[in-house]
């Protein structure tokens, strides 16, 4: 933990603001997901490999779904609010050996501190608190891709993988063929049973279908 020591490059006004675009199955790591962060006001997207539990948490928030019991990130956001602590920003400040390194900047009105955080956790909390997400131009150049060139192919690849996965899953066969209403009912049942990993998969397919409608 550092107090008033966040002297990263990002504070000179050259930072790039990001927003959460979506989640897809990772093409890089089996059993993982890719969190897609989009450059605000620009064409670049950054894929961040995250775990299943973080993908669940982010997907549920994207769909504005409240689980029966609070997830870890919900609890952390509630604790911050209860103690008058505000997450002022998330800063993805380093990319090394395929890993994104992030910091949370927190303030109680008197003190400001920065904490190291996994990028997936930082984004999940930021989504619950409305905090902005930033990175550096260097990280964007190194890891970003342009939507017009790569996103469509990436989405198609992700959809193909989804379909293959669904075909091999007995209890959720070919979810891509479900109507939006059926997907919404399936999602509600999974959340009620607290099967959040499957809920995250259904949520991603539902989001994609709504975007195509």
Task: Describe this entry's structure for a reader.
The chain is an alpha+beta fold and 213 residues long. Helices cover 43% and strands 27% of the residues. The chain contains seven helices and nine strands. It has helices at residues 52-62, 72-82, 119-129, 137-143, 147-167, 180-192, 196-212, and strands spanning 2-3, 16-25, 33-39, 44-50, 86-96, 99-107, 112-118, 133-135, 145-146. The chain has a nine-stranded mixed β-sheet with strand order 1-7-6-5-8-2-3-4-9. The radius of gyration is 18 Å and the shape is globular. The model is unreliable at 4-12 and 149-173 (pLDDT under 50).
Q: Helical proportion?
A: 40-55%
Given as residue ranges, the uncertain stretches (5+ residues, pLDDT < 50) are 4-12, 149-173
The assembly state of the depicted protein chains is single chain
Secondary-structure element string: EEEEHHEEEHEHEHHH
Distinct helical segment count:
7
Radius of gyration: 18 Å
Please indicate the percent range of residues in DSSP E strands (runs of 2 or more).
25-35%
Strand order of the largest sheet: 1-7-6-5-8-2-3-4-9
Number of strand segments = 9
Distance between the amino and carboxyl termini: 46 Å
Short description:
The chain is an alpha+beta fold.
């Amino acid at each position: 933990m550092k107090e008033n020591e966040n002297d990263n490059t990002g504070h000179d006004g050259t930072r790039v603001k990001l927003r959460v675009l979506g989640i897809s199955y990772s093409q890089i790591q089996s059993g993982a997901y890719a969190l897609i962060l989009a450059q605000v006001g620009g064409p670049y997207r950054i894929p961040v490999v995250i775990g299943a539990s973080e993908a669940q948490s982010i997907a549920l928030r994207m769909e504005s779904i409240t689980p029966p019991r609070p997830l870890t990130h919900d609890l952390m956001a509630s604790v911050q609010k209860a103690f008058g602590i505000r997450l002022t920003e998330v800063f993805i400040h380093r990319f090394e050996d395929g890993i994104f390194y992030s910091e949370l900047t927190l303030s109680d009105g008197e003190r400001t501190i920065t904490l190291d955080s996994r990028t997936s956790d930082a984004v999940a909390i930021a989504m619950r608190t409305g905090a902005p997400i930033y990175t550096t131009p260097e990280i964007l150049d190194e890891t970003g891709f342009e939507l017009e060139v790569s996103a469509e192919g990436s989405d198609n690849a992700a959809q193909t993988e989804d379909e293959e996965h669904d075909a091999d899953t007995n209890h959720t066969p070919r979810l891509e063929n479900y109507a939006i209403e059926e997907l919404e009912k399936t999602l509600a049942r999974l959340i009620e049973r607290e099967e959040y990993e499957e809920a995250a998969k259904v949520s991603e397919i539902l989001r994609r279908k709504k975007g195509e409608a």
